[in-house]
Design a protein that fits this description.
Blueprint: H1 2-36, H2 40-100, H3 103-132, H4 143-154, H5 170-193
Helix pairs in contact: 1-2, 1-4, 2-3, 2-4
Length: 194
């Protein structure tokens, strides 16, 4: 039940990421329109919104990957519990077989035992792959100005006026950067534990 809830949460976070991607594209279209009309202040607001949506999409995607990794670890723990029980049964059977010294039975039990370990190795590798695939993403500085220039280029317009160099969005960027650093550190600690 908990495993299902984790997988459901990961899919929900992934959906939210895609929704933010769509909203980012809509904001980019609004930037082009504002630049074409020569309204740079409105274009800057839409650029800030687009960057915020992009960062939110990345955050949702990152959380989805982290929840997915947790689900994989839970699945591995459940499977390892089952394997441990199976191996306990195999060991008991081995004791009985060794007493009778039937070589065919001993060989069959050893094959079963090796199969259990192979299954455990595959599941452990799957968990390690999942954890290593949850990567952190960083976004470059001056995103708003770069996005404005990109949208102007796509619209075939020249930004001949100097854009104001205000502190717009720097507080939000530093908070997002701090959260990103914390998430990166926590992910590194999780990798070290595995």
């Amino acid at each position: 039940e908990h495993l299902f809830n984790l997988k459901f949460a990961a899919k929900e976070l992934n959906r939210n990421s895609k929704k933010c991607d769509k909203e980012e594209k809509a904001e980019k279209a609004k930037i082009k329109k504002a630049i074409q009309k020569g309204n740079m202040e409105v274009a800057r607001i839409h650029a800030e919104n687009a960057i915020r949506q992009k960062n939110q999409a990345i955050n949702f995607l990152r959380m989805s990957a982290r929840v997915d990794a947790v689900a994989a670890r839970v699945q591995t723990a459940v499977t390892m519990g089952k394997v441990t029980k199976s191996m306990a049964g195999v060991v008991k059977s081995m004791d009985a077989t060794l007493k009778s010294m039937n070589l065919e039975k001993i060989s069959a039990l050893m094959d079963k035992f090796e199969h259990q370990f192979e299954t455990l190795d595959v599941q452990t590798q799957q968990m390690e792959d999942t954890m290593s695939n949850t990567t952190t993403l960083t976004t470059p500085q001056n995103q708003v100005d770069m996005l404005l220039q990109e949208m102007a280029d796509e619209a075939g317009l020249d930004l001949n006026m100097e854009l104001p160099q205000g502190q717009t969005g720097s507080v939000g960027a530093s908070v997002a950067s701090g959260e990103q650093d914390e998430l990166s550190q926590r992910l590194a600690r999780l990798r070290d534990q595995v």
